UniProtKB/TrEMBL annotation:
Keywords annotated in UniProt: Heme, Iron, Membrane, Metal-binding, Monooxygenase, Oxidoreductase, Transmembrane, Transmembrane helix
Transport listed as a keyword: no
Biological source species: Coemansia spiralis
InterPro entries: Cyt_P450, Cyt_P450_CS, Cyt_P450_E_grp-I, Cyt_P450_sf, Cytochrome_P450_monoxygenase
Regions that span the bilayer: 16-37, 301-326
GO BP terms: secondary metabolite biosynthetic process
The family this protein is said to belong to: Belongs to the cytochrome P450 family.
Gene3D superfamilies documented for this protein: Cytochrome P450
Residues at which heme binds: 447
Name this polypeptide is given: Cytochrome P450
Cofactor(s) essential for the protein: heme
Keyword Metal-binding on entry: yes
Pfam families reported for this sequence: p450
GO MF annotations, alphabetized: heme binding; iron ion binding; monooxygenase activity; oxidoreductase activity, acting on paired donors, with incorporation or reduction of molecular oxygen
Length: 514
């Protein structure tokens, strides 16, 4: 077709559309009306409440997710519609803790393909795989290296790069004056960057190396955004991610170099370091006796990097923030620590003798869970029944953890920071409440790094409360319209974290009086 004919065809098409605009509009309206009628009258989920746009197209939910609003949207809709609502034409969101426990602990409810979005290297990690047999195999292989007993072997490293590193930093700042102002969110992020780098990459990194922090932070952000942006059309995904592709290349090279350097070290010495990098190299499936391939090690190392910094750093950030908003809780936690200890607190000691501080961390995980997502599972063949509604096979069920954690139907005074809820009542009631906090997941897919996270969170918080007195700057505003202490502004893209950490995470510290 020559140029003139092409132009004529374009003119003809334009003229036809202009002449038939009313017809086309009516056709579009008929299509929309048919779609609405189909969802309202024939969908197997038609009796379940939910927003109309979510019934018509899954793009509604995917767009919200791509913009980082999956969890906040779930929070809003769970308050409006209750424990179950339609979030996409073939998907529901649930927030009753009992329903969430059943779905997450039943292997037949398989992972949904959304997890494929986190597949960075072309090789499945324990998070991305949807095959139950592979999950079981990978858990047999890696599980022994994430138990409390193995993590305790790394406690010296965890303490050196965690509590002790922060103490050294803050003590040096207090040498010049009796008080100083610190940014605790930045401190915790730097601390966890240093700790995870040492445990996963086997490299000693400077606590204050902001340049290294910048590239590792940007790289992990890019990896996370790369996953979410895959929800968009492929051409738009490529345009949006192309400028940052070098970040992934840099971090991938860093992982490969770390593995290579460790293998060289092992070839020169019989000493085997006790850290997560060595665990990835040594781990073996007890049934098949197979080790992880280099590609699998790469995938798991990236997962540890992404999952090891933000969740711990920002849980600690929210814990300190909440303790400052609730002075009575801060006083009780501080009194508990100082009445029990006078020197460095180990994890085992903290677990045995600091029940209120542990409850403060649990309450932080409940009130502000750092992962800002809903957990998707697929209904098995034969379907299931939730809240009296039959849910057909293939339906996606999203565990709405944040909605569940703050539901008035399942928690008393859910928006108040009240650590005592994990200490009061019968042992069965307390156990049920603990099992209704889903920040680390639940059941056979619970986060392998849970014990590592607890080692860091409990030892860091205990030792800082032992050594320092905290006070908020006088400029901080505390109360909201309901009279409850007001949380600082947060961003909810993938993680619930402070929106303005430079100003909102300022803390005045002094050394505690002996």
């Amino acid at each position: 077709m020559d140029f003139d004919k092409t132009v004529q065809l374009i003119y003809w098409c334009t003229d036809w559309i202009s002449s038939n605009i009313i017809f086309l509009t009516l056709l579009l309206l008929c299509y929309l009306g048919f779609s609405v009628a189909k969802q309202v009258h024939t969908s197997p989920l038609r009796h379940i409440p939910g927003p109309l746009p979510a019934r018509l197209t899954k793009r509604y939910f995917e767009l919200i997710s791509a913009l980082g609003g999956m969890a906040t949207n779930g929070l809003k809709h769970s308050r409006r519609y209750g424990d179950i609502y339609v979030c996409q034409p073939n998907g529901i969101s649930i927030s009753d803790p009992a329903d969430i426990r059943r779905v997450l602990s039943t292997p037949q409810f398989t992972k949904h393909r959304y997890y494929r979005l986190l597949k960075f290297t072309g090789i499945d990690s324990i998070m991305t795989t949807m095959e139950h047999d592979m999950v079981s195999k990978r858990r047999r292989t890696l599980g022994p290296y994430f138990t409390t007993s193995f993590v305790s072997k790394m406690e010296a490293l965890i303490m050196a790069h965690g509590a002790q590193a922060i103490i050294a930093k803050w003590d040096s700042q207090l040498e010049e004056s009796q008080t100083c102002v610190v940014n605790y969110s930045e401190t915790f992020t730097l601390c966890m960057f240093s700790s995870v780098s040492r445990l996963v990459f086997g490299q000693e990194l400077l606590f204050d190396n902001n340049e290294q922090l910048r590239w590792i932070t940007n790289s992990t952000l890019f990896i996370s955004m790369r996953a979410i942006l895959q929800l968009l059309p492929h051409w738009l995904f490529k345009i949006l991610t192309w400028p940052w592709e070098h970040m992934y290349t840099k971090i991938a090279t860093h992982v490969e170099n770390s593995i290579s350097e460790r293998k060289q070290l092992l070839a020169q010495s019989s000493d085997r370091p006790v850290d997560l990098l060595q665990a990835l190299l040594d781990c073996e499936d007890p049934k098949s006796k197979m080790h992880l391939s280099p590609e699998q090690i790469h995938a798991e190392a990236l997962l540890l990097l992404i999952g090891g910094i933000d969740p711990i750093a920002f849980t600690l950030t929210w814990a300190v923030h909440l303790l400052m908003l609730y002075p009575e809780c801060y006083k009780r936690a501080t009194d508990e620590v100082r009445s029990q200890f006078s020197s460095l607190v180990s994890y085992a000691e903290a677990r045995a003798r600091l029940p209120f501080l542990e409850a403060c961390i649990l309450e932080t995980l409940r009130l502000v869970p750092v992962p800002s997502v809903q957990i998707p599972r697929e209904v098995p063949s034969g379907g299931t029944t939730i809240k009296g509604h039959f849910i057909p096979a293939g339906t996606v069920v999203f565990a709405n953890t944040w909605g569940s954690h703050t539901s008035e139907q399942h928690w008393r005074d859910p928006l108040r920071f009240h650590p005592e809820r994990f200490l009061e009542g019968s042992s069965a009631e307390i156990r049920l409440r603990r099992h209704s906090v889903f920040t680390f997941g639940y059941g056979n897919r619970i986060c392998l790094g849970k014990h590592l996270a607890w080692f860091n969170m409990l030892t860091i918080l205990a030792n800082l409360l032992l050594r320092y007195d905290f006070k908020l700057p006088s400029t901080c505003s505390r109360a909201d319209r309901s009279g409850l202490p007001r949380l600082m502004a947060m961003t909810t893209f993938l993680s619930n974290k402070p929106k303005y950490p430079e100003t909102d995470c300022q803390l005045i510290i002094t050394k505690a009086k002996s």
